[in-house]
Amino acid sequence: MSERKKNRITVDIYGQQYVIVGEESASHIRHVAELVDEKMREINSKNPSLDTSKLAVLTAVNAIHDYVKLQEEYLRLEEKFNKLKGDDNA
Prior knowledge:
Blueprint: E1 7-13, E2 16-22, H1 26-46, H2 52-88
Antiparallel strand pairs: 1-2
Helix pairs in contact: 1-2
């Protein structure tokens, strides 16, 4: 069984350098890091007194909130699709 190649990319998030290791492309890893950096800066602009740890937690909460909402929407659309597909077979 062959192992997928791991990419090791250094990114900058909120002024800190991180080495990210993953199987995704370097451009994907950089894009994700840029989105995290943007979200942290957006939240910081609204809450400038937050320390970095709290800012990171709020960024994670926001990201998971968005993920859950997308997951719910996906399930709703999948249900609608399956219902429509079922109606075609009737």
